[in-house]
# Entry
Amino acid sequence: MAEQTSSHRRLIIRLTLSCVLMFGFGFALVPLYDVFCQVTGLNGKVLNNGPLQETVVSDVNRRVKVQLIAVNNGGMPWGFRPSESSLEVHIGEMKQTAYVATNPTDRFMVAQAVPSVAPAEAAQYLRKVNCFCFDRQPLNAKEQREMPLLFVLDDELPVHIKTITLSYTLFDITPEDALAAASGSEEVQL
Amino acid sequence: MSTLEQTASTGHHHGPAKGITRWLYTTNHKDIGTMYLIFSLVMFMVGGCMALTIRAELFQPGLQLIQPEFFNQMTTMHGLIMVFGAVMPAFVGLANWMVPMMVGAPDMALPRMNNWSFWILPFAFSMMLMTLFMEGGGPNFGWTFYAPLSTTYAPPSVTFFIFAVHMMGISSIMGAINIIATIFNLRAPGMTFMKMPLFVWTWLITAFLLIAVMPVLAGVVTMMLMDIHFGTSFFNAAGGGDPVLFQHVFWFFGHPEVYIMILPAFGIVSEIIPTFARKKLFGYTSMVYATSSIAILSFIVWAHHMFTVGMPLIGELFFMFTTMLIAVPTGVKVFNWIATMFRGSMTFETPMLFAVAFVVLFTIGGFSGLMLAIAPVDFQYHDTYFVVAHFHYVLVPGAIFSIMAATYYWLPKWTGNMYNESMGKLHFWLSFIGVNITFFPMHFIGLAGMPRRIPDYALQFADFNMVASVGAFLFGFAQLLFIYNIVCCARGGKKATDRVWEGSHGLEWTLPSPPPYHSFTQPPKVD
# Structure
C-alpha cells in the first residue's frame, strides 16, 4: 500500500508539473513567436534597426519600387495617408518620406502605427533608420502632423523583388495609453 | 503484495450508499463513469437542439426563425458543447467504466479526485449555458474564439465563457492524471503494456495529449482574460500584440484536441471489430505505434488550420507535408481494421454496425482532410462548408458513432440486461442515413463556395441546404430511439451472460454482468 501510494504521488507530482510547464509554455509562445518572426523575417514584421554599418552597394543602378499604404484600424477616426504613395528607391540609398496624420475629433488622442511589409521575404531587408511607428503618436484635437520615415534598402535584398509594399495600420491606443500612464508602467512599445 | 491484501480487506464491506448522496459523494469508478455518460448524453441533446436550430434556419435562404446574432451564438455554443460537453466527457466516462475493468484494477487510482473532476463539469456547463440569457447574449465568435472577435468585440458574457473553459480544462486534466495513474500503477500482475487492450492504450496516449495541451488552452483563455480586463495586449496589435498569435496558440492546443476526440474512438473500434469478426485484432503492435505517431505528429501540424493568414511559402509547405504524413499511420489503422474483418466470421449486431460505419465514414472524413491539407486548394476551401463537412464526418460518424458503438457493446455488461437489438439496428440505420444526408451535400455546397457560420445564403445553395436540414432532423430524432433503448435496457430485459458476445475477449468479460460494485478486489492473473 505504502509502495503504491508513493508511486501514485510520484506520478501525480510529475504530471502536475508537466501541466504547469505546459501552461507556462503557452505564455512562452508569445515571446517565442516574436523572436521567431524577427529571426526569420516572417509575418512581415519589420526590424526596428538601422542599416548595417558600411554597406557596400553592389549595383548602384538597381532600383526598387516602394509602395506606401495607410490603413485605419476599425473605428479609428484619424485622417492618415502617405505624403507620396509610391517611391523609386536605389539600393543602399537613404530615403526620407513622411505620413500625414490628422486628428479631426474634439479630443486628445494617442495612436500607434503598426507596420507590415509585403512580400514578407523583403521585411528583413527594409531597414528603418527612423520611423514614426517607433513611438506612440499623440495628437491634440484638430491637430495635423507630418510624421517622418527614414529607411534604406539592404544590398542583400533578393534580386527578384522589384516592388515592396510598406503598409501602416493606425490603431487608437488612447485608453491603453491612459491606463499605462496611470499605472506608471513603460509606455506601449512595439 | 501489500496492495492486494489492503484492497481485499477494504473492498467487501460496503455497497453503494442510498439516495442522492451515493452520486454526490461517490468515489466508485462505475458510478462516476455512469454520471459522465449521462452528463454527456444530456449535453449531446442540448448541443443537438442547437444544431437543429441552425439547420432549421438554414432550411431556406433568407432569415426565417432566428436573428443573425442568435445564429452566431448557436453555432458557437453547438461547437463548444459538443466538443467539451458531449464527446470528451463521453470518452472519460467510458474510460472510467472500462479502464479499471480492462486492466484488472479495483478502481481508478485517485477515486476522490475522480469525483471532483466529474462534479466540476455540471457547474462549468451551467455557467457556459447561462451566458445565453445574459445581456449581450452568449459567446458568438465561433467555437475557435479567434481574437479580436473574442476580446475586443466580444459580448460581456465572455468572462463567464473563459471561466467555464478553465473549469472544464481542470476537469479534463484531473481525469487525464487519474487515467495515467491507473494504467501505470494498477495493472493486474502479468498485464504488461503490450498486453493491454487497445482502448486502454489509446486512452493512455490521449491522456498524455490532454496533459500537454489543456494547459495551453487555459493559457490562451487567460491571455484573453488579461487582454479584456487588465489592459494587456497579447492579441491587440495597437499595443504591440498580434491576433495571428492567438491562432497559433489556439491551434497548438486545437490540433492535438481533435486527436483527443478521435484516438479513444480508434481504441473502441479496435475492441469491437475483433469481437464480431471472431478473430484477433490484426497488427496489434502496429496499432500501438500508429496511435503514438499520430499523437506525436499532432504537435507539428497546427498551422494547417491557418494557411490563409499570410504564411510564407516555406511554412505552408512544412505544415502541408507534415499533415499529409499523418495519413500514413491513420492508413495503417484503417487497413488493420479491414484486415481484421477479412475472412472473419462476421455478424452484424448493432455495435459492429456502428464500428463498420465508423471505418467507412471516418475514412471519408480523413480523405476530405487530406484535400484540405493541400495548401493551395485550401485557399479555396478555407472557411467554407467543405470544412464543415470534413470535421462533421470525422466527429459525428467518427467520434459519436464510436461512442454509440461502445454504449451498445458494453451496455449489457453495465446493466446486466440485453438492449433491444432490432431497435438498436433501426437506430443505426436511421443514424447512418441521416448523417450522410446531412453532411454529404455540405461537401458540394462548400466546393461551390458557401461560407461557414452564416445564417443566410445565396439562392444557388438552397436545394442542398434543404436536403441537409431534412437529414439533420432525421438524425436528431433517431437519437430518441437511442435514449429509449438505453432506458429500457437499464430497467430490465433479457439477462445478459457474462461474456455477452460470442467472440468477446478481455478481462471485463470475466466479470459477471452487471459487475459487482467493487470488482477485481483480488487482482486477476493475466497470462
Observations:
- Chain A has two domains: 1-40, 47-183.
- Chain A has two helices and nine strands.
- Residues 185-190 of chain A have pLDDT under 50 and may be disordered.
- Strands of chain A lie at 63-72, 79-82, 86-90, 95-102, 109-118, 126-131, 137-139, 144-153, 163-172.
